[in-house]
Write a structure and sequence with these properties.
Elements (H helix, E strand, L loop, with lengths): L4 E2 L2 E2 L4 H17 L6 H17 L11 H12 L15 E5 L7 H7 L4 E6 L2 H13 L5 E5 L2 H4 L9 E7 L4 H8 L3 E12 L2 H6 L2 H7 L1 E10 L6 E9 L13 H4 L4
Parallel strand pairs: 3-4, 3-6, 4-5, 6-7
Antiparallel strand pairs: 1-2, 7-9, 8-9
The chain binds S-adenosylmethionine (SAM).
Length: about 260
């Protein structure tokens, strides 16, 4: 395997770099007390290598160094398991809105084969990248769906059909709530993976929560195990049905967010 680096971006990993990725992943998961198996290691490694290789000709991620990919993509994606919500152990229908290169939905789906996971993104080429990994790794519990959340949230077969919806790095919370809460069943949860400014976004979201039918269940602040970068998990519980007019048509929520 060849290693090539241009302008700081890695486009492939050599054996040493693969070992570094695996070590960082193993250590991060151990520090967070998350179970790690040889099968998880094998699938996460194949996924990470393909991410970095594909990123050479498709814009998927700015993070390509082995330690960064392990901690800032994989370990970070698994942070919802720190919530110890009893619901996380069940057999669930989950969605990841604006999944991009698959974060957080794909690492979560790989760790929980009993979940049925729909990874959604509006960019077709990112969906094709994800479909290739799903096929190559034989992941029977993952569906990749190309489309805008505003449109998917109005489809009767998807609307209010998920027990749990995740999203990372897609939009600030008031807009994100309009994209995600319509997909959550009443009684289900939306979990936003945010940076250290997450608590401030909660303050901006009162109006969106009250219109869309959600309440803040709790907010957990944490640090990534190695870099100590701050993260916030915002857990929203859906308490009543979302009015039919939401999500509004594609583009409107971002132009005119509910603030
Ligand atoms: N969640 C991934 C992560 O944390 O690495 C990707 C984050 S990337 C910055 C944002 C992604 O959201 C992009 O892949 C973009 O295509 C997608 N996206 C933005 N708005 C969307 C919408 N309205 N519906 C579906 N996907 C959307």
């Amino acid at each position: 395997m060849t290693e090539s680096i241009s302008a700081g971006k890695m486009t492939d990993w050599n054996g040493e770099q693969i070992a570094l990725f695996q070590e960082q992943l193993r250590n991060g998961m151990a520090l967070w007390d998350l179970p790690f198996t040889p099968s998880l290691e094998q699938i996460y490694t194949a996924y990470a290598i393909k991410l970095v290789q594909t990123n050479a000709h498709m814009n998927l991620t700015a993070i390509t160094d082995p330690a960064g990919v392990a901690e800032k993509h994989f370990v970070d994606s698994l942070s919802p398991f720190l919530l110890r919500l009893p619901q996380l152990n069940g057999s669930l229908r989950i969605a990841d809105v604006g999944t991009g290169a698959g974060f957080p939905g794909l690492p979560l789906a790989i760790a929980r084969p009993q979940w049925n996971c729909v990874l959604m993104d509006s960019l077709q080429k990112r969906c094709r990248f994800l479909s290739d990994i799903v096929a190559e790794q034989g992941l029977k519990n993952v569906e990749v769906l190309h489309g805008r959340a505003e449109d998917i949230g109005q489809q009767p077969q998807r609307r209010e059909k998920f027990n749990l919806v995740f999203s990372r790095a897609v939009a600030r919370l008031p807009l994100l709530l309009e994209l995600c809460l319509p997909l959550v069943e009443v009684g289900g949860f939306f979990i936003a993976l945010k940076g250290s400014d997450g608590p401030a976004e909660v303050e901006e979201s009162r109006k969106a929560l009250s219109i869309l039918g959600g309440v803040i269940d709790h907010v957990k602040e944490l640090r990534l195990p190695s870099s100590q970068d701050g993260r916030t998990l915002i857990v929203v519980r859906k308490t009543k049905g979302t009015p039919k007019t939401y999500p509004r048509k594609a583009g409107t929520p971002s132009r005119n967010p509910l603030i």
